[in-house]
Amino acid sequence: MADNLKVEDGHVVSMHYTLHVDGKVVDSSEGGEPLQFIQGMGHIIPGLEHQLYEMKIGDSKKVVVAAKDGYGEEDAEAFMDVPRESFPETVPLQKGTELELRDQSDHPVYARIDSISDENVRLNMNHPLAGKELHFDVKIASLRPATEEEISHGHVHDHGHSH
Question: What per-residue confidence (pLDDT) applies to 3?
């Protein structure tokens, strides 16, 4: 019976969540579709994934994830000074401005302005939630075993949508 399904590796979990950091909501699925992922495949941050085992449909839980089990501690090496004149005029040079850059392999890299001097702009390449304790409110919306195809592809397939 589907009634006694619990979160375990190889199950597709649909989960509503709200993430609070420093007392503010930074992300939430409320009012939208739940997050879907295959448990045990590292699709979500490890500190949260580990806490979901044994939960059933309709179960709610508060999960506190330490920085090291979330987005990592802030890396003091992940700062970069860029000459001010290399910024396009469209970029507001203010602390906290978020930028999307491209690395050598053309992958997006996110950074935000940490400080500005006369010559340089210092960029912080850390994830915005690095070094932060994460407070999740989670609720399991639905559960089902993943199909063999989903497991082999490593992601959830929407039924009725062809990719």
Answer: 62
